[in-house]
Every structure is written in C-alpha cells, then in structure tokens.
Amino acid sequence: MEKWILIFAVVVTSLDLGSGSINGYFNLDEINDLIDDYQLQYPSLQKEIVGKTFYDREIKALRMANPHKPRILVIGAHHARELISITNIFYLLDYIMTNKSLSLRTEREILFIPLLNVDGLSAISDEFNKTNKILEIRKNIRPTGCKIEDQGIDLNRNYGYKWGYNNHGSSTDPCGEEYRGTSAFSEKETQTIRDLIDIYMFDSVISYHSYGDLYIRPTGYTHTDLSEFPKSHQNLYNDLKKILPSTFKFGTVNEVLGYNANGALMDYLYSLGIFCIEVEIGPEKYNSFHPDISKVKGILDSHLEPFLLLVQRTDSELIADVSGNGRRLVIDVRNDGIATSSNCEIHVQFEQSLDVTVLSHQLHQIEKKILKVKIPPISSEEKEVITLLVRGDIEKFNVTVNFEGGSQHKGFSGEIEIHKLGSRNNLVWIIVISVISVMALFVLLLIYTFYKSKNDTKFIELAEIQVYA
Ligand SMILES: [Zn+2]
Questions:
Q1: Which CATH architecture has domain 318-417?
Q2: Distance 169 CA to ligand 1 centre (A)
Q3: Which strands make up the sheet holding 71-76, listed edge to edge?
Q4: Which one of 82, 189, 278, 280 is the catalytic residue?
Q5: For 164-206, how does the pLDDT look when each residue is reduced to its tens digit (9 = 90+)?
Q6: CA-based angle 415:421:423, to the nearest 5?
Q7: What is the pTM of this model?
Q8: CATH fold group of domain 28-313
Q9: Catalytic residue status for 345
C-alpha cells in the first residue's frame, strides 16, 4: 500500500502564494484566472460551472476526472471572508498536479470548488479595490435589509438536515451572523452542493473554513457519539486525530468550540451516510480569517498531511473470506472502507484442476486453474457473496483469491474442505442402499401382483357361478 504522507519538510508547488491583490490573497478575477490557468496547464483537469449564485455569478469547479475511482468533494469559502480557505484549495490542487510521483492523480476523482460564496467575495474584491480595506463578510449578501457586512444568509446554516432545530448557533435574525434563511436549501449555493451530491454521491467531503486549526466532525445540531457512526468512519476519524499536530483540535463543534450549530453541510452529509470533515485553517493566535500572507505557507503546509490521509483513505477495502459448505465453495467479499468499490474482478486460483461452476454470478470465465468472476460495486460496509459448485473426487484443496482492478484489497489463501455433506464413502453407501431399496421394492411389487392376480381369478370364477345360477 502506497503512503502519501509527506517525507520532505519543504513542500514545493508552482502556486505563487503571495501574488493575490487582497493583501496577497486572491480577488474574484484572480480566482477565475487561476481556474482557467490550471485547466490550460493540466489537460486532465476539467473546468466546470456547477451552479449560479443569487446575483447570477458562476460557481466554478475543477475536476480531476478518474471515472470509477473513489469520489471526493473539496470546498472552500462557504464564508466569504475566510480568504485563506480559497488559497488552500489551490495549494492542495497544485500540490497534487505538480508532484508527479503521487499516484492519487489517477486513483481518485476529486472535485475542487475553490470558492462557493462567489457573491460575498465579489463584494470584498470590489470594496478592496476602492478602499484597500477587507470587508468582513461572512454570508452570501442576498438582500435581507441589512448593511453589506450583515447582509444575506449563512450558507453553512442553510442545509436540509435538522435545519432550524433550535436557535443555538443558528439564527432567525436576517442581520445576524448565523442567519439560516427562510427555509432549508433556500439558497442557490447550497442547492448547488445538494444537487452535486445527488448526482455524484461522493464518498467523502472536505469543507475548508477559517480559523482555529480545528477538525470538526458531525454532528453539529447536537452531540452524536462516534460509536454511532459506521465502523469505517470511526476508524478514519480516529486515525486522522492521531496524525494532527498537538496544537490542533479534533471533535464535534461543541467539543472544540463549546456550542452547537444546526443546518451545517456536515450534518446533511451525516444524514446521507457520507463521510465529512470541516476544517478551520489557521491558528487562533493570528485571530484572522486572512492572516498575514507571510504566514500562509507554513499554515497551509500544516494541513497538507491530514488532507492526503483523508484522500488516501477515501477508498474501498475489500476483504475475501472463503468457506466450504457441502460441495459449495462460498466466497464472502465485504467492504470495510468508506468508499464504494469500483467494478473489480476476483481471481480464484485452485492448486489443481477442478470442475467448478459459478452458481451466483453470470460474468465469469475460467482459464486453466484460475476462475475470474466480475463483481458489481460494493457499498461501504456491505458484502457480496460468490457461490461455486465444486465437483470431482476431492475433499480438500488449496485456493487463493485475489482482486484485480482495485486497491487496498485483502485476498485469501488457504486450504478448504468441501467433503462435509458429500464425501466419496458416503456417496457409495447412498448408492448401495438406494439400489437395494429399489430391488426390495421391486420384489415386493412382484409378490403383491402374483397374489392379487390369484384372488381376482377366484372372484371371477365365483361371479361366473353366481350368474349361471
Ligand atoms: Zn466558515
């Protein structure tokens, strides 16, 4: 298994981190230019318009397309002023594209949305052009009768699971920081994310915010114990926690910030069974959504390893178990990973030539001693059972099961017994007893027929005598 963990202290990318015109951060035109540049520079990246905003601006994405591979959605800037989260998306993208040794470029499908809150950032960009001041806009500036900084809906309180559960960390005040809107999914930006999830059913979602160096897991509306999550999600959350720097915090929003919040993206994804993490970039000490640009590289580097772990572990983990049951060979393939498996094939290799029939699956072929069976995609924590019928004069044999077309999959190798119900000795006895039984029945039938015919003759004779009398 390949590890994508950083081994170099200095991370090299081609992105000019301090080149943006908002104190080194990128304004809206520069973000659009960067998206175009990346698409031109790397033909494997596809530029997509995934939605529109209230003011009809385009929400753009770059797709690292690898069909049938695990799918990850990476989002920046639900909140407009969190400028470092936008830079972070380009940094991650750049890291993947410029480090040619990374096999994840072909092993994962990743949709990068550097900027979700396009209207909010547009207002920040315009104001900075005029006054050289950064407007601290959090919401999407849709008109709600407030001054520009307080205008609009908090996009990360507008998602449709437990929306408006209570007024803790989400507000009914149109000028409040956490105004959740008039209904769940009332905003075009959240509708865009909802529709993308419906279409692509991502295996995991990473949403970047700032700040605090926090890794926040669901749920936000109330505390949900980690034990209530699928085992594969628990494992990944626990492993992520282990590699975080000691100054970072991991937990629910209540555990790391001391309050609950409803209507967040992560809770919506939790309700769909999709793995999600929300990351707040930048240490608390800088007290800024866009810290001094000289600090940015160090901050972004500290979040690179957790990102690579999350991407690496967004995978299927198929495990094969083989057992014998009479003349049947049963292969259980279960998926312990968080991603749905891609179409893959299992190869069952026998030590000796056997007469084998596949009872459960149609798509298969046999080449010498190797049986190849195509198995459909298996969802996380689900399993597929392959049943074979083995004929022939054999009770024990060695079998090896391998996977083709997937990664991180554990096969099986070992000796299997299949004689429990139908060994040769039992079969001989069954045949002998059957033959004797049939012969005995035949003899009994003969005796019965003989006596019956005798009695019938007597009866006819008697009947004839009566008639003649
Ligand atoms: Zn935020």
A1: Sandwich (2.60)
A2: 13
A3: 45-52, 58-64, 109-113, 71-76, 204-209, 275-280, 214-216, 249-251
A4: 280
A5: 999 999 999 999 999 999 999 999 999 999 999 999 999 999 9
A6: 70
A7: 0.85
A8: Aminopeptidase (3.40.630)
A9: no
